[in-house]
């Protein structure tokens, strides 16, 4: 199996699993308990909090654990200090965790501006600046896009937010661990992360919230997470998340080899298959590539790759079983035909050059087959018309 869908989720690292296992059996204490078994679990959570804080230049008491990136996004948008209506600026290419939360806020009377992106999938900070109004309370722009990997000018946007005294949230679920992030340098007030996108366990994430920023609980109950996120902590998952963050900080140099594999994939496909192009500009995360192959049915390509043991995805989001054209590629100005011929290949730390070469060969073969069949059909339809 060649797994090229690392933007969807990643394989958990062995070190992460090993770090987690004791907290599922021997160290099973409730972190709120006062006896030593509980205190040990609490200490493990605090260590993980520090490991995550360190990776983004935050303090430990600015990290709140959540059930994942979706909850962190929901929390940042709907329970930060922006109660009582007002204006929010976001973009057309955000993850649905942000877009659908905005929709709900809109139905409650909030005004939302969705800034556009250019053909490269990039947001222009000037568009953000022009959208600021006296009642603007929040700017939420993702650090990097999950379909194209395009990195957004977060620091420039943070500077604008600071200049106008507006809260700035960034969804860094894809960027976390793959590029350097410093919440102070980038003027970020809130930031969402998720463990499973970077070799950690699923169902655990965190919201960074700058000290002094107002935030209300999204989930009510006990006093966990400094009275802001109730519910008994998932100690094992938190520990795994911390370990994944610690390793990400240690292994920054691995990003370069993932980036090289992506560049190899893109350049080989472009040079060997006519009518191929990369969707999205050059400033990208190391591992995510969105590729257009003219005339190819992306769904059929993905099924065929799967039959050969290669896992890839199309850029489209699946909503209750029906496949809708990708809102990200649509926002970049591509038509439905191009979107239907685009796939996402996302490379991770376990991929090798051999994986990429096999994938290139398979894509070439499937593309040739598909094109042969469609030529046959177009020739037949010509002869019928003639
Ligand atoms: N934001 C982005 C950019 C994502 O790619 C994802 C996951 O696909 C999420 C948010 C949601 O994260 P989670 O799966 O942890 O809920």
List descriptors.
386 residues, alpha/beta, four-stranded antiparallel beta sheet, 13 helices, 15 strands, binds pyridoxal-5'-phosphate
Describe this structure in words.
This protein has 386 residues and is an alpha/beta fold. 41% of the residues lie in helices and 15% in strands. It contains 13 helices and 15 strands. The strands form four sheets. A seven-stranded mixed β-sheet has the order 2-8-7-6-5-3-4, with helices on both faces. A four-stranded antiparallel β-sheet has the order 9-10-15-12. Strand 13 and strand 14 form a beta hairpin. The radius of gyration is 22 Å and the shape is globular. Bound molecules: pyridoxal-5'-phosphate (PLP). The site of pyridoxal-5'-phosphate has 13 residues, from helix 3.
Summarize this entry quickly.
This protein is an alpha/beta fold and 386 residues long. Helix content is 41%, strand content 15%.
- Average pLDDT for all residues: 94
- Ligands and ions found: pyridoxal-5'-phosphate
User: What value does the Rg take, in angstroms?
Assistant: 22 Å
Helix and strand run? EHHEHEHEHEHEEEHHHEEHEEEEHHEH
Distance between the termini: 47 Å
**Structural class, from helix and strand content?**
alpha/beta
What overall form do the CA principal axes indicate?
globular
Strand residue percentage: 15-25%
- Segments where pLDDT lies below 50 for 5+ residues? 316-322, 382-386
Kindly state the number of beta strands: 15
């Amino acid at each position: 199996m060649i797994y090229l869908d690392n933007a969807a989720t990643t394989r958990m690292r062995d070190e992460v699993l090993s770090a987690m296992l004791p907290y599922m059996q021997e160290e099973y204490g409730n972190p709120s308990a006062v006896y030593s078994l509980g205190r040990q679990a609490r200490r493990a959570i605090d260590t993980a909090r520090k490991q995550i804080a360190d990776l983004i230049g935050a303090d430990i008491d600015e990290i709140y654990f959540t059930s994942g990136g979706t909850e962190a996004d929901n929390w940042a948008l709907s329970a930060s200090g922006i109660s009582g209506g007002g204006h929010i600026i976001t973009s057309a290419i955000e993850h649905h965790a942000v877009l659908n939360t905005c929709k709900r806020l809109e139905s409650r009377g909030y005004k939302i501006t969705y800034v556009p992106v250019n053909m490269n999938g990039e947001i222009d900070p000037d568009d953000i600046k022009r959208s600021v109004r006296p009642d603007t309370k929040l700017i939420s722009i993702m650090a990097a896009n999950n379909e194209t990997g395009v990195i957004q000018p977060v620091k420039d946007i943070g500077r604008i937010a600071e200049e106008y005294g507006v809260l700035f949230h960034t969804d860094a679920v894809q960027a976390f661990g793959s590029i350097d992030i410093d919440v102070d340098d980038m003027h970020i007030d809130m930031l969402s992360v998720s463990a499973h996108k970077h070799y950690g366990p699923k169902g655990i994430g965190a919201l960074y919230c700058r000290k002094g920023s107002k935030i209300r609980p999204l989930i009510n109950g006990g006093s966990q997470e400094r009275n802001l996120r109730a519910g008994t902590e998932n100690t094992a998952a938190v520990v795994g998340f911390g370990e994944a963050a610690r390793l990400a900080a240690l292994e920054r140099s691995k990003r370069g080899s993932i980036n090289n594999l992506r560049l190899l994939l893109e350049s080989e496909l472009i040079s060997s298959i006519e009518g191929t192009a990369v969707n999205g500009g050059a400033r990208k995360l190391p591992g995510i590539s969105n590729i257009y192959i003219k005339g190819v049915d992306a769904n059929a390509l993905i099924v065929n790759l799967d039959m050969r043991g290669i896992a890839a995805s199309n850029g489209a989001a699946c909503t209750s079983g029906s496949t809708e054209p990708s809102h990200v590629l649509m926002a970049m100005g591509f038509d439905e035909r191009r979107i239907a011929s685009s796939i996402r290949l996302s490379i991770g730390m376990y991929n090798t050059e051999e994986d990429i070469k096999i994938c290139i060969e398979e894509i070439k073969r499937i593309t040739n087959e598909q094109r042969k069949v469609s030529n046959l059909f177009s020739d037949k339809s010509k002869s019928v018309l003639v």
